[in-house]
Amino acid sequence: MRASRMNLATLREDPAEAEIASHRLLTRAGYIHKSGAGLYLYQPLLKRVIDKISRIVAEEISRAGGLEITMPILQEQELWEKSGRWAQYQASRTMLTVKDRNGQQFGLAPTAEEVVTDYAANVVKSYKQLPACFFQQHTKFRDEIRPRFGLMRVKEFIMMDAYSFHASPESLDETYEAMRKAYLRAFARLGLTAFAVEADTGAIGGTGSHEFMVAAEVGEDAIIYNPASGYAANVERAAGIVPKASAWASAPAAAQLTLTPKVGTIADVMGFLNANGFPDVKAEHSLKCVLFVVTVKTDKGDKGIPTAAFVRGDRDVNEVKLGNAVARGARGALLEIRPMHPDEVRAATGAEPGFAGPGEGLTVEFCYIDAALKDAGPLVAGANKTDHHLVGFVIERDAKAKFRWEDIVRTQAGDLDTRGGVLAEKRGIEVGHIFKLGTKYSAAMKAEYLGPDQKLHPFIMGCYGIGTSRVAAAAVEQHWDADGLRWPISIAPYHCVIVPAGKPGDTAVESAAQEIYAKLQKAGIEVVIDDRDAKPGVKFKDWDLVGIPLRVVCGRGIAEGKVEFKVRGGESKDVPLADAAATVIEAFIKATETLDNAADAVV
Ligand code: ATP
Ligand code: MG
Fold first, then answer.
1. Which of 553, 391, 463, 389 is nearest to 120 (CA)?
2. Residue 436 Cα, ligand 1 centroid: separation in angstroms?
């Protein structure tokens, strides 16, 4: 490829709105062009990267038994009604919809369980055809509340989505494990350091699930982990043991109704109490109440359930755990969880917001107290009376609301691992997700196969997704420096760039560059020759920004039969002109082998 024909679109300035490296560098280096909010055009360089990611992912999923197909992006409402998810996706407003000329409604694929289940029911008739696994690499649409961070969170993106069908849970387990391995192999080949964490099953549903995370400060997910025990889970799901709070000597023996005027936060309440007779009470001795309305889809329709959640005052409620608990309690599917509005709080407690407690006067449908608060001893709780708290409140003795103990606290660094040791926390980018779905979709959609017993059975299913375009951004987050991108060899848009850096009309330089170029092309190396009319320094800067892994400079050294060879981020070294192509090929092979070996090391 000649650089003069590439329409390179590198920018000198960082785009103002870019908060993270991948967004900034992919824009500056001419990979993405913003076409609308959360909508990006893939420029020629990115198209090559995405195609390479897709190919590697497809190779690994195929190796694990997947068959590639392409499903329509337009999905009929009717099909989504069969699984019962139309209403759920409308309620969460995740799905973008369109109508055709006859007024028929369609969803723009946010995922494709319905379409593929319908397909499998039509082509997989007998247990003899099982297990079966189909996958595609196609555009997905999600009406994200806040598209941001460039390719990370967009309205339209590319996803590899795979779906497996089984006659037994054991067969699903096998494929689930094969997929886990396929993912880790694919990420290793892509040059990404990724790891699996236990995950919440969310709107997709099912019985078990893991997310694949790329560790990065800018990641939107929090991961709770313990390297010593191997435990790792998304904070949405993570559980641990909250260390016990200290004792406080000033705690009264019986709950004492105490005036706490004009206090807004727990810190205010503690400050006030410290100054008024309870010098050693701390936030960890208080009950934090958060009031929610949880909408659950039940057999009798959608229900908004007023819910109270209590955790220790210095901790936070895990809304995902809470939402799941309410859904379980109401025997339905979670649609939405939101904090109560102030007037709803007043109705539920008879007090201004800030004074809710599990004592007299709380009227909610569900009340959960975090299980870590069992035997917590005397606490400070809201009195359901404006400007009042109960000091010395013992849950087991004083709670009047009908409540349940439930693990609803947000686990955090410093909590204890149930397997021993202490939990830590880090941030990650979710690049993939695998689910055991069970018969959720097949039962609802009557997708059945004929078993050896001559009876019809619903398929047992799994589903698996990799955010192909998000992977490109995650790869950048792991591979960049002050000069620009540093693509792993497997997904770099080109492997090598040759920069002729002689005086104008220096034919020796020109023909040396052409000679290397021809040799590399013949060897299958994807190579660019920079024939642009620009200063060498400008060219070097451009290629460092674009992130091409290997570089050959033909300059003054040609007179002595030498060229310069450099690996992106490394030192430049002189090599004889005659060896230049071989040096590049060798570096290419070495870099590729390193990634392949990492994939082969996956267990
Ligand atoms: P997130 O929690 O980040 O919103 P998700 O859990 O909703 O993602 P899945 O339904 O698990 O996403 O989809 C599979 C993969 O698709 C994700 O692991 C992620 O890599 C990618 N993905 C999901 N939403 C987006 C998006 N808005 N933009 C880019 N990639 C996305
Ligand atoms: Mg997910």
1. 463
2. 17
